[in-house]
Amino acid sequence: RSRSSGRSGSGGVLSTALPTQHLHSRGAASISTVSRYGGGGGGSNSGRRRINLKTIRGKWTRLSRYQQLAWAAFASLLVSTSVLQVHYHIRGRRRAQRAILAAQEERKRRMLGLGHRRRRKGIGSEDDRDILEKRGVVPWDLADTGRDPSRDRLVEWWLDHPDAPVGLSCAVFATTSLADDDGDGDGDDDSIGGGGGGGGDGINSGNDGTDESDESEIGDRERKEKVGGGTTSSIKRSLAVPTAPAARSTASASTTTTLMTIDDTYFYKGYGISPPIFKGRMPETGSQRVQVAFVLPFVEFQLNKVATLLTEHWGKFPPCHANSPRQSADLVFFTENKLSASIQRRIRSVYSELGPSKTGCFRTDEPMFLSMAEVDPKLSHLEGAAFTFFSLFRLLEKSYKTFILAEPDVAPVQPNFLPALVMKTLSVNCESDGFWQLGSLPLARDVDAGMLRERLDYHMNGNAIYVLGCPEFEEYKCRVQTFYVPKDDCELVAGCSTHEAYEGGYDHALYRYRMHPENYEYSRLILHKFGYSDFIQNRGEGVYVPAEVVEQSPSTYFVHSKSIYQNVAATTLKEVTVSVLKRDPCNRDSATEKALEKIYHYLRSGEYTKADAIRDLCDASKYKLFGPQPSARLCEMYAGPDSALKAQNWESRMPGKTYLWTMDFHGGPTNCDMSMITKAGGAIHAEIDGICDFYGLCKDRLKVIKADNWKEFDPTERQRRDFQMAYEADPEFKRVDAFICHHPVANCELFLPFNRSIIIHATTRLEFGRHDEGIDWRLSSGYDRDVGKEKWKKWVRTIQKLALDTRNVIAANNAYDRDYIKYFTGVENVELLPSWCGDNVGTSFCQDGWESSVSQGWLPTRPEVVIVPYRSNLDRTRYKTSIRDPIDHPIIKELAAVPKAISNGTDVRMIRELYSDANPLRMLKHPAIIILPYQISTMQLIELYRLNIPTFCPSLSLLKRWCREHDLMWEVHYGWPENLMNVKDIPNPNGHALMDKYSKEWEEMFDHWIPKSDFYQLDHITYFDSWEHFHRQYKIMVQTGELEKINRQMTFTNAQLRDDLVEKWKVILQRVKRH
After folding, report:
1. pLDDT tens string 799-831
2. Distance CA 530, CA 58 (A)
3. d(Cα 129, Cα 138) in Å, to the nearest integer?
4. Do 989 and 822 meet the contact criterion of CB atoms below 8 Å apart?
5. Distance CA 821, CA 795 (A)
6. Is cis: bond before 283, omega within 30 of 0?
7. pLDDT band at 365 (very low <50, low <70, confident <90, very high)
8. 886 Cβ contact list (under 8 Å, min separation 6)
9. pLDDT value at 129 more than 70
């Protein structure tokens, strides 16, 4: 049917009901009248006529009876339809309202983690009890809980999720097998350390021969508890429901544990409150317990952080004085999975280097090693941390009264902290006036970080002191876990998050539970059991100075802050991003992340302060592509037109810093120097072309020199003049203290007109970029040999002139290039300034570990020994490329020909066989690397050495043979520049193009220059005379633990070099400083 397009009502119905064929007799005027009445006709109001009812009645009487019946039926249908429409409209509105209410209720249920509602027989039914008992947990009586709807919802959730993860701090049914789980017949559980020794508290110093049995036993007990104490067929379950108030009781070792519940009221300290969903577990405590366990939890990839903590932080602030008496305290290294014997040896070795004078006040001389036999690898970081935290109580309570949980980023700030810790733990106990937990609230300087102020966050950080063996605290933890059910990021473990923003972690769950309004009646009775203390300060990721902390708070002995393992730039960027954008910097929003990456690299280079970062972020947010909106308050404060903190001009920027500027064609050398320069009080800006993306140092505001993929590697005279004119009045160049050049150093010729100090820091040969006819791609890019000769002479004279001015620095990062510069220029005051390359190794912005200042430790998990570097030149010669697959090179075939009886299963592979890139961090998974050199020094080899990976290298005699037979190191020099100094007593390092490699001249050149290569100058590298010799050495070193020893030696050597380099750079920066 047609619908009136005008006003609704009877007019619309009438226009539809009257048939037009019976109106034709009245002509067009009548049709117009009806249509206008119904609102569907055209024309103006002046043409409207009034309807004559007599006329309509007359027309009706002229209809036949059948026509009248038909029209009556039709009218009735219309009326019925209209009534139904109204009815369905009203019912639809009611349904919509119910749907909205249901959706709101569903959202509330999801916020509480209750899942979808299902029809059930009723809470407290036998099916419910069966479900809960199969989970290995015992509910309180669930039959009458109508007075506590919030508790009902949680009970309903646990009944709806019979397969939800276990690991709760709640009671379990157990049999006699739990009472004597270690199978030694003494009814005791040798929980920690070295086994042996019947009776007592079961605590013994760990050793390699006993760790395995003890830890597997702990893990077995843990698994049995997780599934309810064993198989269903071997366990008898019972549930006693007395009418008296609740009382905990455990049967003897020969009977099944019986847990008592009550009808509907639960009494705590005389107060009747709603009972918990599950009853708290009854702790198992020994007769003689040590006062405190210093638990240092970590995962294997944090091994380097643990070593850094012990050597640097505990070395500076040791746990004991030389004359401190023994304390009732043990050091316990805790891991989720059992550590290998080699890792335990490495930790013991680092710990023993502290010496008895610093660690002699622990109860035993050796640290303990504790682990869970098996942890689900699917657990996320939050889930794993929560699962191990709640499990620690079971593992420690039999042997200790308290424990302090101190992750690797909890560092001491005062010496002799162990006696102070033991004294502090005396107030942590299960007595009426004792604390259950003693720790720190958030003390980050930036109260906007993590929305601390908005959320009124006073949570106690998980690095704290805890009581052990306290039934009331076990019940509290049980309540927390059953209140914060598994979901979202914590779908496998209960109590590991509150499921709110910035509140991931078991420590947030422990805090928010007692602050939640629904738990008020219980929380008011136990709130005093949680004590805030400045013994440990939780500073989040804030940078701190230990002396200042102690001066302001003399009772503080530990500070928890990730900053000790983070580079300052990452720490600052995180603070800025959270404060301004209320989000993490690595949120994978491409436009935002690109702006943040730029800010990060300016922070890392020392160019930006925190205020600069905020201003830059506020400016970037003005563009439409930028995602989140920044804090208006902070942007107004730092970037507003009337702000006192607005951006400064170039003359006032970076006060007190020495500002360096570079334009290299490789980002590696600048990246390797950057952390040393900033630690020494400098800042460096880099405009890099070529290999720059990975380091985040690509050109940003470079003028004139387009540097398009090295096309302007050797600028023309016209480009040099234009460059000078472009920067002559540039305010940034007026702020620059010195220019630094690495790769090639000849780029420094561009900066000579600006009358600034010049730092020549050579990382490759001096002729590179001027007289380098030995490079194939240079010959094809317009290189002229005669012009190159003249440029070489001019460049040598420039070096000589620069060396006469004490404001300038001539240096090289390796001994070969240092003596190379001396040979060709006659300059004697060339410094040896090694590249560091030990920070931000193998990672770029927002990749794993990008924020770390401590690289991952060497932790071999793969069997292959890897041949490096990625580029080997085995596939080419000087002027011919892709002549073979590197695997088909005769040197590699020699390796493959080693008899299996000698190789003994050792798998040696080229890096390109295993990986698609040269990321040095991958080598940390391998037991050793082999250098197959094509250059005397490369950034990749330095990066690998800084990672402390045991390294092998062909001996001089073997390398000489390979160079003679296969021209292995043809890329050592880039041409044959003229010896302008006419040096006669030293062989020319480059010889000549047609030199016979079996001649005495070539041998003298090799013997004099090649030993200056990095891989022959660095310590702790093992050399081999043949592939068979390598296999024999390697086998012996693996068996004797020599590789671990080399790793420790390299770690010590690199740490010393790092400190020495910072001091060297301080001297250089002071020398070139203008402002």
Report:
1. 999 999 999 999 999 999 999 999 999 999 999
2. 95
3. 8
4. no
5. 12
6. no
7. very high
8. 872, 874, 875, 892, 910, 912
9. no
Of the candidates 740, 936, 714, the one whose C-alpha atom is nearest the C-alpha of residue 820 is: 936
Place of tokens 């010049």: 758
Decide the pairing of beta strands 530-532 and 400-405: unpaired
Which of 101-110, 240-249, 889-898 comes out lowest in average pLDDT?
A: 240-249
How far CA 104 is from CA of 75, 100, 109, 110, 535, in Å, comes to: 43, 6, 9, 10, 45
Report the distance separating Cα 475 and Cα 138, nearest Å.
13
| Interatomic CA distance for residues 856 and 897, integer angstroms | 35
Question: Per the structure block, which two tokens stand in for 746?
Answer: 């000849």
Q: Which residues contact 803 (CB under 8 A, 6 or more apart)?
A: 810, 825, 827, 829
Nearest in space to 616 (alpha carbons), one of 590, 638, 591 = 638
Tokens read off for 406: 């101190």
Q: What's the Cα-to-Cα distance from 339 to each of 14, 374, 532, rounded to whole Å?
A: 90, 12, 34
Q: Are strands 465-467 and 437-439 parallel, antiparallel or unpaired?
A: antiparallel
Can you tell me whether residue 84 is helix, strand or coil? Answer: helix
pLDDT tens sequence across 269-303: 667 777 777 778 888 887 889 999 999 999 888 88
**Six-digit token pair at 54?**
């007599």
Phi-psi domain of 62 (left: phi exceeds 0; alpha: psi -120 through 50; beta: other): alpha
**What ranges in 42-64 are assigned the alpha helix state H?**
53-61
Quick one: CA torsion of 110, 111, 114, 116, rounded to 10 degrees?
-10
Least confident of 481-495, 507-521, 935-949, 1051-1065: 481-495
Could you tell me where the beta strands, DSSP code E, fall in 424-525?
437-439, 465-467
- Cα–Cα separations (whole angstroms), residue 87 to 82, 90, 96, 449: 9, 5, 14, 55
Question: What's the DSSP call for residue 122?
Answer: -
| Element containing residue 550 per DSSP (H, E) | helix 546-552
Contact 614, 581 (CB under 8 A): no
**DSSP-H helix ranges across 237-340:** 303-308, 315-316
Structure tokens at 965: 């037979």
Decide: 1035 and 906 in contact? Cβ < 8 Å. Answer: yes
Whether the model clears a pTM of 0.70, i.e. scores above it, the answer is yes
Query: How do residues 392-450 score in pLDDT, each as one tens digit?
Result: 999 999 999 999 999 999 999 999 999 999 999 999 999 999 999 999 999 988 777 77
Angle at 570 between CA 566 and CA 575, to 5 degrees: 110
Q: pLDDT class for 711, splitting at 50, 70, 90?
A: low
Residue 752: CB atoms within 10 Å: 15
pLDDT at 816: 97
Residue 648 DSSP code: P
Residues 813, 669: contact at Cβ < 8 Å? yes
Q: Express the helix, strand and coil content of the chain in percent, nearest 5 each.
A: 45, 10, 45
Please, which pLDDT band fits residue 187 given cuts at 50, 70 and 90? very low
Q: What is the largest CA-CA distance in the chain?
A: 137
Nearest-angstrom CA–CA distance, 866 and 912: 9
At residue 234, what is the residue type?
S
Q: Which residues pair with 405 in a beta bridge?
A: 295
Q: What is the CA radius of gyration of the chain?
A: 39
Half-sphere exposure of 774 (CA within 13 A, CB side): 19
Give yes or no for a contact between 474 and 280, defined as CB atoms under 8 angstroms apart.
yes
In angstroms, the CA 538 to CA 444 distance is 7
Sign of CA dihedral 977, 978, 983, 984: positive
654: tokens are 């970076």
How many angstroms separate the CA atoms of 538 and 553, rounded?
A: 13
Residues in the chain, how many? Answer: 1075
* Cα 405 to Cα 554: distance, rounded to the nearest angstrom: 21
Angstrom distance (rounded) from CA 13 to CA 71: 13
